[in-house]
Amino acid sequence: MTTHRPAADVGASGYNYEHFGLEHRTMDRLDRPEVGQAAPDFTAQRLADGTTVELSDYRGRTVVLETGSATCPMYASRIAPMNALAEKFSDTAFLLLYTREAHPGENIGPHRSMADKIRGARLLAEEDGERRTVLIDDLAGTAHRAYGAMPDMLYVIDGEGTVVFRAQWNDPTLVEQALTALANGEEVLASPPPGFPATLPADRVTRGVAGAHLEPRGQAGHRRHGTRPPPPSTASAPSHPPPQTDPAGGPLSGA
């Protein structure tokens, strides 16, 4: 593998934008690396123990590399199914590369230091139930940009370090199919065409509330966009009688 170096004209401040905008990323294609090409090597910090690791450290094992951040609703909706895949394919290295914030805001702003980035990454394990190995990219997004800079892209890399499957938006169903084919010595199906994965409801994308089940009190949509929830209304709430219950204590049908 060849270690990717950051472009001279892309610094940390330009990479970590203040607010989301379509100009910050290409939404309809992945430029690199393509299926059949060598996966660019990179260096990152492992969240669990702070050690520095390289992608090439995993040579000899199949690697599933996904990108994500604390404010990315697409990534949040994939945590549970990807954790399940990591358990099913235990010989595969499942890596989550922590990137810039997809939707920075008041609560979780753009990263201005590695300490900011580490704090964001910790939310994944402490609040969101992420059980895969979390690798923290550098402040300038060197590894993220080497792989296309999409917020929730995914690559499957074989033991020789070659990309065998990629998706601009992670679709766990297709990832499972790719890993099953590899395990059986079969040809991996073609990577999905550009566009949002079919398994993600459109309203979750447009509202940014994916992963709401991870956080009670309806706060997920605000956390995922890095903003504070609106203050509670001071208007008097309408009075409603309590629902009637059956003798077993449950609500009556239609209540």
Overview of the molecule:
- This protein has 255 residues and is of the alpha/beta class.
- It has one domain: 3-Layer(aba) Sandwich (Glutaredoxin), CATH 3.40.30.
- Helices cover 23% and strands 13% of the residues.
- Strands 2-1-5-4-3-6-7 form a seven-stranded mixed beta sheet.
- The radius of gyration is 20 Å and the shape is globular.
- The termini are far apart.
Observed structural traits:
alpha/beta, 8 helices, disordered N terminus, 255 residues, seven-stranded mixed beta sheet, Glutaredoxin, 13% strand
Give the H and E element order: HEEEHHEHEHEEHHH
Task: Please state the second-level CATH architecture.
Answer: 3-Layer(aba) Sandwich
Give the structural class: alpha/beta
Looking across the biggest beta sheet, what order are the strands in? 2-1-5-4-3-6-7
* Contiguous runs where pLDDT drops below 50 for at least 5 residues: 2-10, 200-222, 228-255
Q: What is the count of distinct domains?
A: 1
Distance between the termini: 61 Å
Q: CATH first level: which class?
A: Alpha Beta
Itemize the secondary structure elements and their pairings:
Blueprint: H1 12-15, E1 43-46, E2 52-54, E3 63-68, H2 73-76, H3 79-88, E4 93-98, H4 114-126, E5 133-136, H5 142-146, E6 154-157, E7 163-167, H6 172-183, H7 202-207, H8 220-224
Parallel strand pairs: 3-4, 4-5
Antiparallel strand pairs: 1-2, 1-5, 3-6, 6-7
